[in-house]
Amino acid sequence: PPLGAAMEQICLLLLLISNALSVGAQFNGFNCDANYHSRFPAERDISVYCGVQTITLKINFCPVLFSGYTDADLALNGRHGDAHCRGFINNNTFPTVVLFTISLSTLESCGNSLVVSSAQGVNAYGNLSLVQIGNVSGYIDTPDPPTIISYLPGLLYKFSCSYPLEYLVNNTQLASSSAAISVKDNNGTFLSTLSLLLYNDSTYVQQLSIPMAGLTLKTKVFAAVKATNLDRRWNVLMDYCYTTPSGNPNDELRYDLFFSCDKDPQTTVFENGKSQMGRFSFEVFRFVKHKNQKMSTVFLHCVTKLCRVDDCPLLMPICGSRKKRDLLETVTPNPKGASGNAVITAGPIITRSDETPTNNSQLAQLNGPAFQMNSVTSALISGVIILGVMSLSFFILSLTLLKGKQHSPAVLSGIRNPVFN
Question: Taking the complete model, does pTM exceed 0.70, yes or no?
């Protein structure tokens, strides 16, 4: 019996060594640790990076190896026969990963899905607004064997990138015991592609140059919200543009240029929602709070949306339409519809005021004659004096003639004309 027990322990030890050697051979050549990666895939094994032009997926390759698969078995949306839909190994990291890169311009080529949904909501400034959200989703899986049963687990990695087009998304993860399923939702933003620029004229070629003394009040400034390095399926839609005396877009003191159909009389919108550039102009002004300053600063801000080209006309305000007004009155605001806002800022626009403080030279002039008149003022005063003298003379003459008429009947009654005798 002691000999049998010893033989059993030796066999168990040999089995453990054999398993360790097989796992070591399985991870051979890759940056994997058998102590940590001898397991099936989990939800933490996929990372999703939602970029402006591409979506990058990183999958921990070590659990894939442990499950009995290779990198060639992983493909986007079941497209295992298409080499363009497979990933490539990056063995320069720990652990080794399989990288997938999805271009937003050709995302449908490997079966990825783009769904754009609309939601009615209230943006950060309490304005009722229709917001679109673009969601790109897909999955990475392993092929099913051409048999009835399999002892290998099916691997499935789900991902999605949500691009709120007035910009916040939650991350959710899911694991299933029936298969190795990883789900990763992540958020992306196109804010880095947007810019708000100021120009000198309607050609939108030369950017605005502000002189040292500031712009003259009522100077027309041309503004443009532009998108760069952005897929052509999106257009720019300016939702709300306003100004503040500071660079803080949340400044309580603000002056609105336009929102929906409400527009400042001095503001003109040239293009909106029709391309990747929104254009408008307005006349510069000064904030009254700067009355004791020689120059006034004005900062321009625009809450901007991105809309799918085919959907932009549906998001444009229909000004003067009762149908549109009735629709807005009947929709219940949903704050979740606009959970984030992209506010783009430009400025400062420096304007000069004609109301300048009294300087030393002006104080010196006050010590001279008490009142000095120019030629125009002197002529006006002389004319008024002459008219006054003429009016007074005419009035006295009128009184004299009136008294003469009142006395003449008495004189005539005392002297009768002899012809009438």
Answer: no
